[in-house]
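Schema walk-through. Below, the input block comes first and the output block second. Nothing else is stored per chain. Lengths vary across the set, and this one has 154 residues.
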Amino acid sequence: MAFALDRLDIQILSALQENNQATAQELAERVPLSPSAILRRIRQYREDGVIAADVSVLAPATVADRLSVLIMVQLERHSPADVAAFRQHLCRSPHVQVCVEISGVYDISCIGIFRGMEEFNAFTDSEIAGHPAVRRYEASFIKKRVKFTTAVPL
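--- output ---
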């Protein structure tokens, strides 16, 4: 569902994407509204689903010993039910950070994070290669995170 955002909404939401812990007073220094008006808007964003979640993003150094892997999956069967079932199967895994359906040679791409090669191999053997809907998959190890953001340009 699309939401009609005015200029002030865009300013508030952009600031919250930079730092969702900013106080209403700090936001009021950037947006020409009173702190109470800003809080009312933020409450409404949450009720309307404009703000989907408030999360903490860990610093890369916190998990520097993890393997991040881009996994591209080509499915054997493409019925909507098969695609949905496999997508849900992947999304249940705590290793999967991102899961998207894509166009092209592959059908699904995901980014997974693992404590090491053994954990990665166990995951791909049991959750991907062993799944009846999968034709084949490729994995590319992420060498360096150059940019990471959850912000949406408004």
